[in-house]
Design goal:
By secondary structure, the protein is of the alpha/beta class. About 40% of the residues lie in helices and about 25% in strands. The protein has 2 domains: about 1-95, no CATH class; about 100-170, GMP Synthetase, Chain A, domain 3 (2-Layer Sandwich), CATH 3.30.300. Strand 2 (about 60-65), helix 3 and strand 3 form a beta-alpha-beta unit.
């Protein structure tokens, strides 16, 4: 049961993380090509989040990355996809900081040491993204349960020198509402 849920989470989240707005895309083939090319970027890690929207022949890239070259590579890669005429780059490049790098590593350890989230270590593009800017953490992506979401907020708030944790994670299987 747990493995089936993890497999479902992985499949659902791969599309959801990179395809924000792909439902609005007129050309699903073009949207799928963009999703694939972004997922194949060599320096794309758990500490980056690139979203896109396809409108006609225009691709709008948004999100945040911690390596400046990644934003440039994303634009360059998408520009070369047949059918793409214009690429709008709205990707935020997070400021370089060794201090933020240390927080990223501590946050990743805190996330993957939570028993129900330890499987994330084995996924190349995990469904949970950790964005760190000026000692502030933002979580985006998908988790299996509300308990996982809540636990990650508590765990990350306990990391020394973290000023704030914004948890924008979506819950894959929200509990039914009792009346």
């Amino acid at each position: 049961m747990r493995n089936r849920m993890k497999q479902g989470l992985l499949l659902a989240s791969l599309g959801a993380l990179l395809a924000t707005g792909s439902a609005m895309a007129k050309d699903t083939t073009l949207s799928e090509k963009v999703r694939h090319e972004l997922a194949m970027l060599p320096y794309y890690t758990v500490f980056d989040n690139i979203n896109y929207e396809v409108t006609g022949n225009t691709v709008i890239l948004t999100g945040a990355v911690h390596i400046p070259a990644l934003a440039l590579d994303a634009v360059g890669t998408v520009k070369h996809i047949p059918g793409v005429e214009t690429v709008e780059n709205q990707i935020e490049v997070l400021p370089p900081s060794r201090f933020d790098d240390q927080i990223r590593v501590a946050a990743w350890r805190a996330v993957t040491s939570w028993p129900s989230m330890s499987y994330l270590r084995a996924i190349p593009l995990p469904p949970v993204r950790i964005l760190v800017k000026d000692s502030r953490i933002t979580l985006v992506g998908v988790v299996p349960t509300q308990a996982d979401k809540d636990a990650l907020t508590i765990r990350l708030n306990s990391i020394p020198y973290v000023f704030n944790v914004t948890n924008d994670l979506q819950v894959e299987n929200p509990a039914p509402h009792k009346s």
